[in-house]
Amino acid sequence: MKKGFTLVELLAVLIILGLIIVIAIPSYTQIYSSIKRSNMQSKVTEVETAALKYGNLIKDDIKNAEGNCKTIKVATLIEKGYITSEDDVEAVIYDPTDNTALDGDIYLCYCKSKMDITANYTVPFNAYKIYHVGDTVLHNNKLYECLNDYTDIHNKNGAPGIFGTNDDGKAYFKELTC
Asked: What angle do CA 93, 98, 104 make, to 5 degrees?
């Protein structure tokens, strides 16, 4: 009686392992990307909450600013002690999706109907960048919220832009109002 496995049995095991890997890697990648995106949303919420605290301190300045809005940087919130820097040398918060500094602006606006301050972390709109639901972008001095994942950047007709729609006819962005 022989001990061990035949070549056919070993090949069968390798094929099964290969199939498991082919199935598992895309799922792992999707889960990993989702976790990074969730971490990014948490950091943006943290920055916006800190900005609201700062905004309540300078509420009169915001009310008197042009358009009832004032722009601040993440570094300002760090320097004033509202959030802690993630770097020992620079005043920065890192984006967990790509490990770059969050370099967008925070728009602090006074909403007359709510009689309160709103804070939105924004980045300038770029038609060739991917945006996800909930992202806020700045275009022509107006704030827009992403309603549907904006990923159709390599469309044969060119990127759809801020007023474009997806294949289902749903708008990618809507203008934010207080």
From this structure: 50
